[in-house]
Amino acid sequence: MTTRLVGLLAALVAVVGATFGIAGPAQAATPVVQITKVYYNSPGIDTGSNISLNAEWLRLTNTRSYTINLKGWTLRDRASHVYTFTTNYSLGAGKRVYVHTGKGTNGSPDYQHRYWGRAAYVWNNTGDTAYVRNPSGTLIDSCSWGSSGSYTYC
Predict the structure, then answer these.
(1) What is the pTM of this model?
(2) Could you read off the pLDDT of 67-109 as tens digits, one per residue?
């Protein structure tokens, strides 16, 4: 192959990887979108109120220097409760988005909060695993915790 063709193929692989959240060889150690914190045990007694449900959340961080569209990306737990980014949602370079369990009004990309709309808790206080997948179903990152504490950094 010519040097120019190799360069074009490398550029194409980078574009496809950015579009679908697949890390290239130099980026393999850090996920494109990373679970960076999970607040799995909302403060106080678990009352099931919307305020309590929204105090349970997961934070995703874009670890790249470019914006990623999260449309079609999913979050799930071990019990297969699934949250899907159903509309175009641009997560800017280095930006974070918080996905709350309860109901609320999704903010603009500047506000960076999304609401699952559930009436029951998702993340188990006794231990669980959170998974984030891209639109093609590829596992991008996961985070596990045990039964102590209320939150974990991933």
Answers:
(1) 0.81
(2) 999 999 999 999 999 999 999 999 999 999 999 999 999 987 6
Place of tokens 């996920």: 31
Distance of CA 54 to the CA centre of its chain: 16
pLDDT digits (tens, 9 = 90+) for 19-70: 455 545 545 589 999 999 999 999 999 999 999 999 999 999 999 999 999 9
Q: Residues of 50-72 as b/e, b for ≥16 C-beta within 10 angstroms?
A: bebbbbbbbbbbbbbeeebbbeb
- Read off the tokens for 141: 């990152």
| Domains by residue range for the chain, with CATH | 31-153 (2.60.40.1260)
Q: CA angle, corner 102, sides to 153 and 133, nearest 5?
A: 55
Beta carbons of 89 and 96 less than 8 angstroms apart: no
- E-state strands within 1-154: 33-39, 57-62, 68-69, 74-76, 82-84, 90-91, 96-100, 113-115, 128-133, 139-145, 151-153
